[in-house]
């Protein structure tokens, strides 16, 4: 009886993890860059005084910061090489199509008035039909991207085809 309850809980937990949203968020105006797994885990990319990039990793109640651009102090041991598994181009396209772009906003200034004026009609067209595109003449650049997916949709791209 207890074994079936434990197995049932493990299966329900695994099924629940398949439907947890994966979010990738980039905002160049506020400096927020992170990838998250629906409240369970979050990796934030931040600037730091000591290094160029610091990654703050939060998993449930555990928080850890590390610097990915520094070399490890321990010498790495040689590992056995495994044959590389290539991902087909069609599979990669299906994987990219499984992601949803919830928000995309681009506010751009090239610094050249003539180029800005030439890009203005293109940005008006894109703003009307694709996403939020704006051209400005105030030397202000901004990009906001919010991309989401779920693990079951990623698995579905590899299993179905």
Automatic annotation (TrEMBL):
Protein name as it appears in the record: Uncharacterized protein
């Amino acid at each position: 009886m207890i074994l079936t309850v434990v197995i049932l809980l493990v299966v329900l937990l695994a099924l629940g993890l398949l439907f947890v949203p994966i979010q990738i968020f980039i905002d160049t105006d506020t400096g927020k860059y992170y990838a998250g797994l629906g409240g369970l885990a979050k990796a934030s990319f931040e600037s730091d005084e000591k290094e160029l990039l610091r990654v703050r990793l939060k998993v449930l109640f555990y928080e850890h910061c590390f610097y990915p651009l520094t070399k490890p102090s321990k010498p790495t041991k040689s590992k056995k090489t495994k044959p590389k598994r290539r991902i087909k181009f069609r599979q990669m396209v299906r994987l990219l199509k499984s992601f949803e772009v919830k928000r995309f906003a681009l506010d751009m200034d090239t610094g050249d008035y003539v180029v800005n004026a030439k890009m203005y009609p293109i940005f008006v067209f894109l703003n009307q039909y694709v996403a939020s595109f704006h051209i400005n003449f105030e030397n202000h650049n901004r990009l906001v991207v919010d991309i989401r997916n779920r693990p079951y949709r990623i698995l579905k791209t590899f299993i179905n085809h």
